[in-house]
Amino acid sequence: MKIAAIRVRGEVRKSPNIVDTLKALNLNHKNHCVILEDTPVAIGMLRTVCGYVTWGELPADLEKELIEKRGKDKDQRVFKLAPPKGGFGRAGIRKYFKMQGACGNRGKDFEKILRRMI
Description:
By secondary structure, the chain is of the alpha+beta class. It is built from 4 helices and 5 strands. It has one domain (2-117): CATH 3.30.1390.20. Strands 4-2-1-3-5 form a 5-stranded mixed sheet, sandwiched between helices.
């Protein structure tokens, strides 16, 4: 299974650990998306930067649609997305998904926000 992660917050006031982890994930700009394998290392990195990214499960059909609409080639794994239609969440980008915000693990609900950004 694959997971996708989207960076939702910018560059201001980040610790060096957060900066290094975001660079390792290739999430260099806001509204960029990466496709990752569901491994303990990837999950640990996402938990480290959970205040700056949102992530969830990526269905195969949505992965194909993402590559067709936003990818330049089939081997690409970093995508520039548009801001989501209707916003990230009612509480904004500084709150976690469980608190009606944007950050953190969305699980199966990730498909909804990714479709709004493609």
